[in-house]
Structure prediction request, 218 residues.
Amino acid sequence: MPTQVKSRQRVQEHGEVFTNEREVNAMLDMVKEETERIESRFLEPACGTGNFLAEVLRRKLATTNSNYRRNLDEWQHYAFLAVSSIYGVELLADNAQECRQRLLDIVLDEAPRETPERFGEAVRFLLSKNILCGDALTMLDASGSPITFCEWSFVRGERVKRRDFQLDHMLAANKQVNEQLSLMDLMTTEYDESRNELVPKTVREYPLRNWWEVGLDG
Ligand SMILES: C[S@@+](CC[C@H](N)C(=O)[O-])C[C@H]1O[C@@H](n2cnc3c(N)ncnc32)[C@H](O)[C@@H]1O
Prediction:
C-alpha cells in the first residue's frame, strides 16, 4: 500500500498527508458522472503527488478507451482532451514533478501501441502547464508570478485554442453580477451578457494550433 506520509517534518511544515485510495474513490464517487466525462474540468489546489488527479485521469481514460479505442486519431484527440482539463497546484516542487510524471505514465500506459511519439510530447507539455508548483493561498507560482492556467479548447477538428487566465481573476469571477464589485474585480473580470455572469479577463491568447503543436508557443 502506498505511504501516506513522507516524513514527520513535511507533515509538520506542510500538512503533507496523502489521501488513501479508498477515500479518494469514495469522494470521487460523489461526483462520479463528472469524473467519467472526458472534458469535465478539475482543479486541485493542494494536489500533492496527484492521488485525486490520477484517479480522475484513469476514469476519463476508461471512457476514452470504451468509446474511441478503435480509431487512433480519435483516441489521441480525446485522451489529449482528458489531460488538458485536469489542473493542479502544489507547494512542494518534488511533489508537483512526481504528479506530472505520474499522470504522464498513466496516459502512456493506456496509449495504443502504435501511438506516435508526438502524442507523448504534447501530453508532457500540457502537464508542464497544468500542474503548477505554487502557493494556492497567495496564488503566486514558485517564481513569485501570479498562477496562470491555460484553457485548451478544441475548435474545428484537431485545432486547439489556448487562452491563459490568472487564478486570482478566475476566483474574482465567481462573484454574482449583482454583488458589490471592487475596482480590482472590475479590472480583472468582464460581464458576459449571453451567460449573465462575470468571466475572467484573458491574460493572453495564442494562435490556433494542431494539438500536437501546442508546445510551439512555450
Ligand atoms: C494533506 S496533503 C494532500 C495531498 C493530496 N491532495 C492528497 O489528497 O493526497 C496537502 C498537500 O498540500 C500541499 N500544500 C500545503 N500548503 C499549500 C499551499 N498553500 N498551496 C499549495 N499546496 C499546498 C502540501 O505540500 C501537500 O502536498
Notes: Residues 43 and 87 are 4 Å apart (CA to CA). Strands lie at 42-44, 86-90, 131-135, 140-141, 148-155, 159-166, 189-192, 197-200, 204-205, 209-210. Residues 14-19, 44, 46-48, 51-52, 89-92, 95, 135-137 surround S-adenosylmethionine (CB under 6 Å). The radius of gyration is 18 Å.
